[in-house]
Specification:
2 domains, five-stranded antiparallel sheet, alpha+beta, Ribosomal Protein S4 Delta 41, Chain A, domain 1, 5 strands
């Protein structure tokens, strides 16, 4: 599956947020990239604002356009607030949960761990990053991967209590997806209503 592999700092500067994690370039150049990035720009249209919000969500969660559209369609069919359900579906992806549990430092690293068969769900190896985890399922590091430096360095000092919808057992390196998070619990700075308005055009 193709993934965005271009310069991440440029994308972070475009949105003015460290959406890929800590970024030294963003702290030095907190203006959009390009020749005229530091100059006054014309007002962005309503469509442009909505499109930008969708792109930010896609880059944040590492999802391609087709996957994102499919998730939106699924959210639209479900009962409840479409934008909130969309974010909950994104949060339920296996790569995101591996990241939230602190097993990997970034979602990209989490996706790689999943693809390389280092993660199990309820004791079975799952190598599909987009796998939708259900409440009550256990996400663990495979025995042979417990000594990997990337995992241990990421877990070192990680505060597992900051996400109330998950719990972590350090001894067995196993996490549990307790329940789907409420919108107020999801820390991402995404205005999901703008995405709903974009797809509703």
């Amino acid at each position: 599956m193709a993934r965005y592999t271009g310069p991440k700092s440029k994308i972070a500067r475009k949105f003015g947020e460290a959406i890929f994690g800590a970024d030294k370039v963003l702290s030095k150049k907190n203006y959009p990239p390009g020749q005229h990035g530091n100059s006054r720009r014309r007002k962005t249209s309503e469509y442009g604002i909505q499109l930008s919000e969708k792109q930010k969500a896609k880059y944040t969660y590492g999802v391609l356009e087709k996957q994102f559209r499919n998730l939106f369609t699924k959210a639209e069919k479900a009962k409840g607030i479409t934008g909130e359900i969309l974010l909950q579906l994104l949060e339920s992806r296996l790569d995101n949960i591996v990241f939230r549990l602190g097993i990997a430092p970034t979602r990209a690293a989490a996706r790689q761990l999943v693809n390389h068969r280092h993660i199990t769900v309820d004791g079975k190896v799952v190598d599909i990053a987009s796998f939708s985890v259900k409440p009550g399922q256990l996400i663990a590091v495979r025995e042979r991967a417990k000594s990997l430096e990337v995992i241990n360095s990421s877990l070192a000092g990680f505060n597992h209590s900051k996400y109330a919808w998950m719990e972590w057992d350090e001894a067995s390196k196993t996490g549990k997806f307790l329940h789907i998070p409420d919108r107020t619990d999801i820390p991402e700075n995404i205005k999901e209503q703008l995405i709903v308005e974009l797809y509703s055009k």
